[in-house]
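I keep forgetting this: the sequence line spells out the residues, with the fold written below as integer tokens. I include a record here:
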Amino acid sequence: MSLMQMGGVAMIPPAAGILGDWFGGWFSDHLMSRGVSLTAARKVNLVGGMLIATSVAFAGFTHSAVWCVILLAICTFGLQSAGCIVWALPSHVAPPNSASMVAGLQGAVSNTAGIVGPIITGIIVQITHSFVSALVVSGLCCLLGAALYQFGLGKIEPISLVKTSNANQPKDVQL
């Protein structure tokens, strides 16, 4: 592809991501409006979006630029369908007056992947001299993410802060 062609084509996956954000938020809220529980409505997008994102693993096996871009767009759509729900979770689980803190902590931890991902990709490409393995690893990470959301995420409900008991503290003694 020429530089001009790449510029036009490079906007397709992010545009698919915008659609994924919109669709993911709408679909999850639509399920809730139909009586589906908060947990089920959110997990459908989290798990489904991550499963859709596994399509990135196949991008390295195609010899067609068109199919590669289509697979990357599908992946980005899936990631963003799940991502919009990830950003909604703090409002569902945070203790009162703590949603921003929980979202900030979530963002800080999530950005670790943005730091580590390119490093691991570079190592994989340096060892294999190909992006195929890196794309397969990315797809497997998406599959792992889907499994973690499905089996590791319990009921979505506010975190309960337990107050410590005063039983172990010394009592005032009057003389």
In short: Residues 99-128 form the longest helix (30 residues). The mean pLDDT is 90.
